[in-house]
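Onboarding guide, step 5: your first structure request.
Type a short instruction followed by the sequence, for example:

Predict the 3D structure of this protein.
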Amino acid sequence: MTLQERSTRSTGSPLGRRRSPVTEPGRPGSRVRRTGSAGLIAAVLVAGGVAAPAVAAPAAVPSTPSTPATTAPSAQAAGSVTTETAGGAGTEATRASEAARSQATRGPRCTGENRPGRLVTVRGMPTATRTTARALIGAAVRCQSRELARRAERDRTRLSFGIVTPREFFALPEKETKYRYLVDALVKSRPGYEKLSGYYVWPRVSTSQGAGDPKAWDEAVSAGLLTRAQARDMRAQGSGYLGWRVLIGADGGWGAFIAGD
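The system replies with structure tokens like these:
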């Protein structure tokens, strides 16, 4: 029996009426569903002169174009994320570096900025006095002009022998090195207690008891509140200490921050 006769009996139609898989590239599996026989398909393909690679090619055609279309954008997207992340880190580092250069260029905001030191106290000093002194140090080293002005307004602090408001006195930029003197008086000089006024005073040379003590004068010089020549002149003239001084009451009230007579 010939190949054509076997095909006719198996399928019920002549082989010549069936469509070749090559003529239907969009339906590569149509012959499998029609015949259900793998052996018959192989025989027909060989008889029709169709090579094996020609059968595999249609199945690969739909997937081949999709590979570059999906893989390339994915790679590009991954690269963009890496670049953006690296760029973000670089931007933060750049900003930090620029901020540091800017601060170095402009210098400190005030003369008390970031000055080191701790409050100097004496035995028996009330907690309220200590609290206020520490608050003044904290505001001065941070150049908080509004906070200092607020406290001075609240306590009616004497800031100058002339007419000046607290906001004007602590305005930035400074006209004098007030912030530095405020910090240095509290952290570098020993305080004394003035019994007549009831204030704790930094430096103690500004009190009636400390005015005649050579060591108290040396402490003021070492604290940077005046030069040794100034100290010598003040003592020779009998004027007493005329440098910057801070007065805080036992109740925590900020009495004064003044210099001069």
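Each response can be followed by summary notes, for example: Residues 3-89 have pLDDT under 50 and may be disordered.
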